[in-house]
Design a protein that fits this description.
Organism: Laccaria bicolor (strain S238N-H82 / ATCC MYA-4686)
CATH architecture: Roll
InterPro entries: LSM_dom_sf (IPR010920), Sm (IPR047575), Sm_dom_euk/arc (IPR001163), snRNP_SmB/NAA38-like (IPR050914)
Shape: elongated
Strand content: over 45%
Number of helices: 1
Keywords: Cytoplasm, mRNA processing, mRNA splicing, Nucleus, Ribonucleoprotein, RNA-binding
Number of domains: 1
Distance between the termini: 39 Å
Radius of gyration: 20 Å
Structural class: alpha+beta
Strand order of the largest sheet: 4-3-2-1-5
Protein name: Sm protein B
Family: Belongs to the snRNP SmB/SmN family.
Largest sheet: 5 strands, antiparallel
């Protein structure tokens, strides 16, 4: 888990919702702190008279900073790597310039 700090994760919880965000922290109970979190849930539209079942829709909602109780976590999966910080960008540019000079 420690290697996933700052990575973007998708967390499925026991009521069927999925939360996607950058993992900032965790503890031994699997409580998670997620930044820039978004919630995704499937919703069935209400039936109207004479209609057959309508297709499910996925609703998205921005939550921001979330503290998620570990007891509700069903699964975790990696959505993406940690974001590139300004310092990392500067180093990446310097490294590429250095590589170009050596060529």
């Amino acid at each position: 888990m420690l290697s996933l700090i700052n990575w973007r994760l998708k967390v499925t919880i026991n009521d069927g919702r999925a939360l996607t965000g950058q993992m900032l922290a965790f503890d031994r109970h699997m409580n998670l702190v997620l930044a820039d979190c978004e919630e995704f849930r499937r919703v069935r539209p209400k039936k109207k008279a004479g209609e057959e079942t309508a297709p499910e829709q996925e609703m998205k909602r921005t939550l921001g900073l979330v503290i998620l109780r570990g007891e509700t976590v069903v699964s975790l999966s990696v959505e993406g790597p940690p974001p590139i910080v300004d310092e990392d960008k500067k180093n990446a540019v310097r490294d590429s310039e250095h590589d170009q000079r050596r060529s």
